[in-house]
């Protein structure tokens, strides 16, 4: 097998206050022709930085390659000019970025963005470029290519945006495709479709793929070989089979074990640190323990009763066209009990977040009733809704955008206390805020720091601390761990369970990750096209799904080898 790309003894440093900090430490690997190589590791492991160097995309002035070489077609990419890189990017080496909405230009139609690549790198005529773009849209299995061609990025779904990105990346038939976390925020079913598409395209074009992710189970579905990165080093590289069946490095074993098991429910999920320190808590929640807990929960009156709930949106496809009614939530009925975690799953667009927003009265329902502690909250006035906010809170998916960058963490946690007149003085609020910070695994020194000074996992802890500050009865977790690394996800899930036990919280846990929802939930509510598809004990649904839609969701979960 011939070698297409050789990374040899590559070291990369970032410069801060004129000091060099080496973050990639002499890594060496090869990418062979007609091969899919997986690069796996947590945020900060160096996987994205090291692959950005291949395309000369390291940030200028604050970073530099301090040693090593990147050989592609006999040329060292660490020594070529910016102009020479323009001939390589897109044409010989393509890239799919993690977040298509950020990577796509919002002011250009999807068709124009792909045409731009072909215009730069080919000698095709205008008509040939348009035809080639439509052909690419068909190849990446976009529904109605003509419509997507004329659509702007915000007018299509997340999965469709990712397909447009793939069409751009393969437009010039590159020899290498770098896919950087291309499925992180996607539903499991859409994720499966993207993985299948990439494999199909690779087999057809014989291009080589560098597939970057933090999810080892996902790697098993696509890669031939895997290299595992940890703190800027490659700690292990081998075939997929050997990595899964005979992992050698403790970190690899930790990555495999940190994901919630679909068969066993541990009381505490092991984190990377736990596995590496041989301090895994192997206590299991048995079926008997679970049944006993459920008999206590369901013997009381419901905390929340949702009855025949509907949420309609009215839209028009043109200026003189007839108004179209779309039911995002359609006749939904269920009960939620104090101390319960209700899992809410389904694909994007199924109505799960709309349902959550309706319960929070952030987007008032069109019909039906929501009884909280026996009172219909859909009839409340503005002042009464403000009081209700103390009782029903939300933890958002992206803690960075939900925190005010101008407020310190301490101020962010104290702000809702002040709004709801909790505690009489600043010093008492500060004391409580520090106590909550400690409770969520942060310390006193974090009180005066700003959101940008924290990692993603730490920011999510701050978001949880802000929610907990009001001691609510019900917390809606809307995709609150979907963008986190496996280990950080384990820490946050453990924290949510610990807080539930300590304060008696009740959760509605919204996610597209069925493995996580199954681990967290007592009952599971599966939504499809605004309606309830199935509602039952989480374990029962996983073992014996009744509906084809639920079976499809379960079958799409990456399970490793």
Key words describing this protein structure:
561 residues, alpha/beta
What does this protein structure show overall?
It contains 23 helices and 20 strands. It is an alpha/beta fold and 561 residues long. Strand 1 and strand 2 form a beta hairpin.
What is the strand and helix layout of this fold?
Elements lengths: L2 E14 L2 E14 L3 E5 L6 H8 L8 E10 L2 E2 L5 H7 L4 E4 L3 H4 L6 H12 L4 H14 L5 H6 L7 H13 L5 E5 L7 H18 L2 E6 L2 H7 L2 E6 L2 E7 H6 L4 H8 L14 H5 L10 H11 L4 E14 L8 E14 L3 E5 L6 H8 L7 E6 L2 E2 L5 H7 L3 E4 L3 H4 L6 H11 L6 H14 L16 H13 L5 E5 L7 H18 L2 E5 L3 H7 L2 E6 L2 E7 H6 L4 H8 L6
Parallel strand pairs: 3-8, 3-9, 6-7, 7-8, 13-18, 13-19, 16-17, 17-18
Antiparallel strand pairs: 1-2, 1-4, 4-5, 9-10, 11-12, 11-14, 14-15, 19-20
Helix pairs in contact: 4-5, 4-7, 5-7, 7-8, 17-18, 17-19, 18-19, 19-20
Head-to-tail CA distance between termini: 25 Å
Strand content: 25-35%
Number of strands: 20
Major sheet: 6 strands, mixed
Instruction: Quickly give the structural class.
Output: alpha/beta
Order of strands, main sheet, comes to: 6-7-8-3-9-10
The average pLDDT is 89
Helix content: 25-40%
pLDDT below 50 for ≥5 consecutive residues: which ranges?
Answer: none
- Radius of gyration, taken over Cα atoms and rounded to an integer in Å: 25 Å
Approximate shape: globular
How many DSSP helices? Answer: 23
